[in-house]
Design brief:
This protein is an alpha/beta fold and 233 residues long. It has helices at residues 3-10, 100-103, 121-124, 139-148, 168-176; strands at residues 14-15, 34-39, 49-53, 61-63, 84-91, 97-98, 113-117, 136-137, 152-155, 180-183, 193-201, 209-218. It has one domain (3-18, 56-218): Glucose Oxidase, domain 1 (3-Layer(bba) Sandwich), CATH 3.50.30.50. Helix 4 runs parallel beside helix 5 (168-176).
Length: 233
């Protein structure tokens, strides 16, 4: 029995966030994560206190529309119900990118929260070097998802779009349609299926994104299902 199977059977919460730490992988050009112990009891201080410096898109994080849309909604404008409630983890077989043809087989419905598990999860978090050939959401798949009216999408690396040009086309397709984005998930120990999702980014005034703690729990029919925020079409 794998650890994922054990967790599912035990009905425990699964943390799919990437720990923030010095030297961790980041998008090329983004500032690194830094942690400095300002007060240290080992040096005789009365308490321990740390200072952190980081990109708003460090590790596991949420993209708000403002990330690519000047004047768009910021991270503080995210409706809480968009990232708390029933979600579905979909395993992607395509080794290059997520394409509309594969998504059509999954019966995607309006208002769903979708987290995509690709070949990224078991390999990209094993190194602190940036992986250029990660699996991403193709622009065509992004447009397909907006036509289906999904509320939220998540991906298991640092961007929903490809490395070339920073995935601008994919981001724009999703964010212009009101679809919120979660990036930097580690789904390596999460089987495909339905889950309860809690994803709460830091509430940073004026920010276009923020790090988030994201947890999943295998869903049961008996549990209440909060209605998701439905993006505009």
């Amino acid at each position: 029995m794998t650890r994922a199977d054990s967790l599912s059977q035990a009905n425990q919460w699964i943390d799919v966030s990437v720990p923030l730490r010095k030297g961790m992988v980041r998008w090329p050009g983004d500032p690194p994560f830094e942690l400095e112990r300002v007060y240290d009891m080992a040096r005789g201080d009365r308490s321990n206190l740390s200072r952190i410096a980081l990109s708003a898109h460090s590790g596991t994080h949420v993209d708000a529309p403002l990330h690519f849309l000047d004047g768009g909604a910021g991270i503080c404008d995210m409706p809480l119900d968009v990232a708390v409630g029933r979600a579905r983890v979909i395993e992607i077989s395509d080794p290059d990118s997520i394409k509309a043809a594969e998504l059509r087989r999954h019966g995607i419905r309006r208002g769903e929260r979708l987290l995509f598990k690709t070949r990224n999860s078991p390999r990209v978090w094993r190194t602190d070097s940036f992986i250029e050939d990660f699996v991403f959401i193709s622009p065509g798949a992004a447009r397909f998802l907006t036509r289906r009216g999904v509320a939220l999408v998540g991906i298991d690396y640092l961007s929903v779009g490809g490395y070339r040009r920073g995935g601008r086309e994919t981001h724009l397709a999703l964010l212009q349609a009101g679809v919120w984005i979660v990036e930097g998930l580690d789904l390596s120990e999460v089987p495909p299926g339905r889950y309860d999702l809690i994803c709460l980014p830091l509430r940073i005034d004026g920010a276009e994104g923020a790090p988030a703690r994201v947890i999943l729990r295998p869903a049961h029919r008996s549990r209440a299902r909060p209605q998701p925020h439905i993006p505009r079409t």
